[in-house]
Amino acid sequence: MPDGVPEVAADRLRRLKANDTPAILVVVYGNRAFEDALLELSDLSPQAGFRPVAGGAFIGEHSYSTSENPTAHGRPDAGDLWKAAEFGAEIGEKMTGINSPFDIEPLNVPGNHPYRDGWDPGEPMSPLTEEDNCIKCGKCAVVCPVAAITMIDEVTTEEEPCIMCCACVKNCPTGARVMRARMQELSEWLNKNYSERREPETFL
Ligand SMILES: Cc1cc2nc3c(=O)[nH]c(=O)nc-3n(C[C@H](O)[C@H](O)[C@H](O)COP(=O)(O)O)c2cc1C
């Protein structure tokens, strides 16, 4: 599994059908690295009929960020949004010089071919529910982007589809949805090694 575009997102992109439509490629990462994600998008999008005109890598709070280990907490912030607006203006300028999608030059974005192998957790990492604190409100199931959680009489989690985004943990109103010990270790590791602020990068 490459450590780039989550398969669920790549799959959605593959299902789109564009007609030489200009596209802006954007990845958001948690202040560690975006690795081959932008290159993957630039390979996938023409297959779906898009013509990439620009790419950007922006920073968002890390999925494993917690109050004790707040990696990229508060991102994107005002500075990031300013850069995003600037990026938009630069794309606008670039587009004024382009009369037809066929005039769009191939876009160069960083990354490796073949994609570097991603990290494999090796053991289940999906968050757990502490039954005693769970009020069975079902919010975790609603916010899960891959429908890995069901709430009927109790909360059950399918480990396989879980992409470890931790939306369930962050949205649980009673703190009953928790990270496993392994993920807590990673949360600490990220905060220790990747707390130095990274800035958005754009490619036009
Ligand atoms: C499946 C998955 C893989 C991730 N891989 C990385 C990564 O390789 N490097 C990184 O810095 N952050 C990584 N993250 C953290 C996210 O990029 C970041 O927390 C997230 O994009 C925040 O925006 P969102 O809430 O729109 O997803 C990953 C998150 C998920 C869900």
Description:
This protein is of the alpha+beta class and 204 residues long. The protein has 2 domains: 112 residues, no CATH class; 52 residues, Alpha-Beta Plaits, CATH 3.30.70.20. It has 6 helices and 7 strands. The strands form 3 sheets. Strands 1-2-7 form a 3-stranded mixed sheet, sandwiched between helices. It has a two-stranded antiparallel ribbon with strand order 3-6. The two termini are 28 Å apart. Bound molecules: flavin mononucleotide.
Secondary structure elements and pairings:
Layout: H1 7-14, E1 21-29, H2 37-47, E2 50-59, H3 78-96, E3 128-129, H4 139-143, E4 149-151, E5 155-157, H5 167-171, E6 177-178, H6 181-193, E7 201-203
Parallel strand pairs: 1-2
Antiparallel strand pairs: 2-7, 3-6, 4-5
Bound molecules: flavin mononucleotide (FMN).
Which terms summarize this structure?
three-stranded mixed sheet, Alpha-Beta Plaits, binds flavin mononucleotide, 7 strands, 30% helix, alpha+beta
